[in-house]
Amino acid sequence: MSIGTARAADLPDTASASRLLRGADMAMYRVKTREKPSGYTATRQDAYTPTLHGRRPGRPGTHLPVG
């Protein structure tokens, strides 16, 4: 099981749940790739990471056209 962590209190200007979910996804990815240590919590930068077709860059399927 993999879990990403994002706290709304840490990201006060991110009003939407989608921003929190994006931050948690990025936090999980950064730990899985060993870019950040275990226990890393999403930052504002993680919550505002650009997406490709609604998915984090590098995820399978992001190279495919939207159809």
Task: Describe the 3D structure.
By secondary structure, the chain is an all-alpha fold. It has two helices and no strands. It has helices spanning about 15-30, 45. The longest helix is centred in the middle third of the chain and has 16 residues, at about 15-30.
Specify the structural class: mainly alpha
Which spans of ≥5 residues are poorly predicted at pLDDT below 50?
none
Q: What oligomerization state is this entry in? A: single chain
Main pleated sheet: none
The beta-strand count equals: 0
Furnish the topology, listing elements before pairings:
Layout: H1 17-32, H2 44-47
In short, what is this structure?
The protein has 67 residues and is mainly alpha-helical. The chain has helices at 17-32, 44-47.
Structural descriptors:
67 residues; mainly alpha; 2 helices; 0% strand
